[in-house]
Automatic annotation (TrEMBL):
Highest classification ranks of the organism: Eukaryota, Metazoa, Ecdysozoa, Arthropoda, Crustacea
Matching InterPro entries: CUB_dom, EGF, LZTR1/Attractin, Sperma_CUB_dom_sf
Cystine bridges: 133-143, 152-161
A Pfam family of this chain: EGF_Teneurin
Protein name: Attractin-like protein 1
SUPFAM superfamilies: Spermadhesin, CUB domain
Every CUB domain range: 1-93
Residue ranges of domain EGF-like in the record: 129-162
Species annotation: Amphibalanus amphitrite
One GO location term (cellular component): Golgi apparatus
Length: 223
């Protein structure tokens, strides 16, 4: 089963798309969101699986911004296993947020003319959804007020210093400062990934945007 929606904003208005709920069969049912009016436009995101439902969330999803004046949403399902689906809300000339019901995630002020948030003290990110020092560094670090992040004590890692390094840890890499078309491969779903040394290798996956079958990331380039 395949469904498509085209959101067409007059006068090239900026469109914010908020993923309020999302639960599909992981690896088989996907939603592709493009900044434009077709699958040949710039790919903003690909979602699949149990991402956000009621009080459960893998992480806060910041709204997507379509600057072309149009947004194209494509849903593919093998129709083998049904979950609750998804709810995507859109607004014109609004600010990024983790919820369509809040301006700037409830942690800042929105300027509708520029579409930018001014965050309250202690919050950052374009949607004011990122605390500078989550959980007060969990008691295992100090808050660096200048760099707006935790400096973890030895043996602890993570944005909130809650993970024991000896037990393994995970961290979110910041977005690359380079244009995606030149340095970062297009988003994909149902791919495989392994870590070897200081590199992350991605294999296969599905994407409407042409991309290499095998991609290697240098982790140190993001640190």
């Amino acid at each position: 089963m395949q469904c498509t929606w085209l959101i067409d904003g007059a006068d090239n208005r900026t469109i914010q798309l908020y993923v309020d709920d999302f639960a599909t069969e992981c690896g088989w049912d996907h939603v592709y969101i493009y900044d434009g009016d077709s699958v040949y436009s710039n790919l903003l995101a690909v979602y699949s699986g149990m991402v956000q439902l009621d009080k459960f969330a893998t992480h806060n999803l910041t709204s997507l911004e379509a600057k072309s004046g149009s947004a194209y949403v494509h849903f593919y399902s093998d129709a083998a296993y049904n979950m609750t689906g998804f709810k995507i809300t859109y607004k014109y000339h609004s600010c990024p947020s983790i919820s369509s019901a809040l301006n700037c995630s409830g942690n800042g002020a929105c300027d509708p003319e520029s579409g930018l948030c001014t965050c309250n003290a202690g919050w950052g990110g374009r949607a004011c959804s990122e605390p500078h020092c989550p959980r007060d560094c969990s008691g295992h670090g100090e808050c660096d007020q200048q760099r707006h992040r935790c400096r973890c004590h030895r043996g602890y890692r993570g944005s909130d210093c809650s993970q024991l390094e000896e037990e393994g840890f995970w961290e979110l890499l910041p977005p690359s400062p380079y244009p995606p078309s030149k340095y970062v491969p297009a988003g994909r779903a149902s791919h495989a990934a392994i870590i070897k040394g200081d590199s992350i290798w991605l294999f296969g996956g599905e994407s409407f945007t042409p991309t290499a079958f095998v991609v290697k990331y240098d982790i140190n380039a993001f640190l």
